[in-house]
Amino acid sequence: MNEDKKEKTHRYKVMCTSHKLVLIYKVKPNPKNPNKHSDEQINLLAKVIEKTGFRNPIVVSKRSGYIVKGHARFLAAKKLEGKYVPVDYQEYESEVEEYQDMVADNKLSDLSEVDEQLVFDTIKEMEFGFTKEFLDLVDFKSDEIDSFTLDPLKDSKEEHAEKTEEIPDKKEVKSISKEGDLFGFCKNEDGSFKHYLYCGNSTNLDNVQSIIDQLNISLNHLLTDPPWDIYKNTLHKNKNYKSKAFGWTDIDALSKWDEGFSLSAEMLDAFYSIMQEDSSLFVFPGQPALPEILLYIRELNKKRESIESMVVWDKPFYSLRSRNFYRKHELVIGSFLAKKFVSMKGVSHEDVIYSNNNKGGRAPHPTSKPIYLIKQLLLPFKDSIDYAFDPFAGSGSLMVACHELNIKSFNIEVSTEYTDLIISRYKRLYKEDGVLINNFKNNEEKLND
Q: What one-character-per-residue DSSP string does 140-155 give?
């Protein structure tokens, strides 16, 4: 298509093919067209074309030069002050054949009925891209219009959206897990699970690799917030050290991380080594590790020609600090291949994400991330993710966000207390217990048949 002409269509894009762009004043309506179009219909159609583009060309007879099909689209284009319209010129042997085609097109469309329930059921299956504004635009009427998700960043009900952000209190959490336990959630027809939660040491890569191999799953999207203020020297030399980042978790659980394993770029590279080469990586670097992580991401991008991304989380609360400015923003650094990023219809992928969740960053898990935030970071990659991976699962925000978006996930948490917290959180939301698959305390243990 001539780009100059495309630009001159002004308020709509021409999306159809096999047509010619014709100056609108050269297109002639048929004076014998029996179908009359109300102002309401033309205004509505104009809004739809402006929103979704011109997707059906106007059919014009080569014999008479008049419009045969598309009178309403022609009037809508005039309403939008378009200069060009797409035209499909067709052959007609006689005036009778031409008129019959025009009348049949008008009459047959009048006889059709829209099964609105089927429309809504289909939208539910498609899950994303539809908005209430659009359904109102095309004049769908249904009591169900507010009963499910039309905007992918809003849950089916406000009440449910609020519940996804809630984290159970310690007194609500039952002691279930022990070191090495692997749990499955949301069982598939083939016996596999949509989500896996391993209670163990994510830095024991041989063990993690063994579990991944036996589950026969592929990890290709890392999204994690490592505990940056726990350092190997402090952790292994002083087990009485109390980190503010771990709430009510016993510090002994954290000492299970491999001695000498640095929570830094070395760690990030180690996790990348057990994932697919084309994996996307997103990490909350924190201030201590920011320079090192940023350098690693940039080196990785050069190596595999991937894209660097920086997203800012605008928090609804301040991180209180002594002898320094209060922090209200947190950075997320990402690396991904361009082909993995797919813009979702109706979603604004912005590099500043605001969440009004006031519970994030509070006990029982002080560094919990809002589900809305995690959804935003997952959405552009939704269709390309095999299993999302969080080696420091914490309160389980990634698993919840993935379940809301129908994405599979593999999660690791070193603490039995936080593992129990995740299990409790999932059950509260989805009324389903985690299934204990096996215990992998020693990496030579195998899955049950």
A: ---GGGGSS-SSTTS-
E-state strands within 289-344: 307-319, 327-336
pLDDT tens, residue by residue, 210-247: 999 999 999 999 999 987 655 444 444 444 444 443 44
Does residue 273 carry a pLDDT above 70? yes
**What does the CA dihedral 155, 161, 165, 170 come to, rounded to 10 degrees?**
-120
Backbone angles phi and psi of 77, in degrees to 5 = -65, -40
Domains of the chain, CATH where assigned: 3-111 (3.90.1530.10), 116-146 (no CATH), 179-439 (3.40.50.150)
Query: Residues 414, 250: contact at Cβ < 8 Å?
Result: no
Q: Once rounded to an integer, what is the mean pLDDT over residues 159-165? A: 76
pLDDT at 153: 46
Residue type, 401: A
Helices (H), 246-370: 251-254, 265-273, 286-304
Contacts with 260 (C-beta within 8 Å, 6 or more apart), sequence order: 232
Find the angle CA(8)-CA(14)-CA(20) to the nearest 5 degrees: 85
Alpha-carbon span 249 to 5, nearest angstrom: 64
Euclidean distance between CA atoms 287 and 324, whole angstroms: 13
Phi, psi dihedral angles at 96 (to 5 degrees): -65, -50
Q: Is the peptide bond between 364 and the residue preceding it cis, with omega within 30 degrees of 0?
A: yes
CA distance 124 to 115: 15
Instruction: Output the DSSP codes for 60-92.
Output: EETTT-BEEE-HHHHHHHHHTT-SEEEEEEE--
How large a percentage of the chain has pLDDT more than 70?
70
Q: Strand, coil or helix: what is 299?
A: helix
Residue type, 360: G
CA distance 221 to 183: 20
pLDDT in tens, 299-347: 999 999 999 999 998 887 666 555 667 677 889 999 999 888 876 555 5
Q: Are 176 and 420 in contact (CB under 8 A)?
A: yes
Give which of 64, 54, 72 is closest to 5, Cα–Cα: 54
Helix, strand, coil percentages in the chain from 3-state DSSP, rounded to 5: 40, 20, 40
Query: Vertex 388, ends 384 and 393: CA angle to 5°?
Result: 165
Q: Report the mean per-residue pLDDT for the chain.
A: 78
Q: Give residue 442's pLDDT.
A: 54
